[in-house]
Design goal:
Elements: H1 4-33, H2 37-63, H3 83-110, H4 114-144, H5 148-159
This protein binds MU-OXO-diiron.
MU-OXO-diiron binds near residues 17, 20, 50, 94 and 130.
């Protein structure tokens, strides 16, 4: 049986991951609106990954005899006006999600819940990759974003991203 606080945080994470998907769809819509379809597509794929993360947390709860509790998904709390703001907000959001995963890990560690810690290991690594991806996007934009030709090429590069199912299977 899972600890009550751990269950609460796992449920909270389901909601946060769906929120992340919602936020990235909002980012995607802004990028499409500004004619940057490669950026829009990149964030749409990112939203699919976030939905997968939510599904994994739900599956983990179910595998441990807990019924997931679905709550309202908030409206995106930030309203970037430019693609550069989108990229900066995206990086900041991933840092926030990392802090949530670490809080969850700490709660599991406190009650010696080694099973949940092992489940979370994948997310700890995933967050490292997600922060890195988001940071790289910011850096690339800062390097090339002001030059229209370079921005066009960066947009084309991002359009190549394709959805891949998560490597974690429960
Ligand atoms: Fe599910 Fe981008 O963290």
């Amino acid at each position: 049986m899972l600890d009550k606080k751990v269950v609460k945080l796992l449920n909270q994470q389901v909601n946060k991951e769906f929120y992340s998907a919602y936020l990235y769809l909002d980012f995607s819509n802004l990028c499409y609106d500004q004619g940057l379809d490669g950026f829009g597509s990149w964030y749409k794929v990112q939203a699919q990954e976030e939905r997968d993360h939510a599904m994994l947390f739900m599956q983990y709860l179910q595998n441990n005899g807990e019924r997931p509790v679905l709550k309202t998904v908030d409206q995106p709390a930030v309203t970037p006006a430019t693609v550069k703001e989108v990229l900066l907000e995206g990086f900041q959001h991933e840092q926030y999600v990392t802090s949530l995963i670490h809080d969850l890990y700490e709660a599991a560690h406190t009650v010696k819940d080694f099973r949940t810690m092992q489940f979370l290991d994948w997310f700890v690594k995933e967050q490292g990759e997600e922060e890195n991806n988001a940071d790289n996007l910011v850096k690339k934009y800062e390097l090339f974003g002001d030059d229209p030709k370079s921005l066009y090429m960066l947009n084309s590069e991002l359009s190549a991203r394709v959805y891949a199912a998560p490597s974690l299977v429960l």
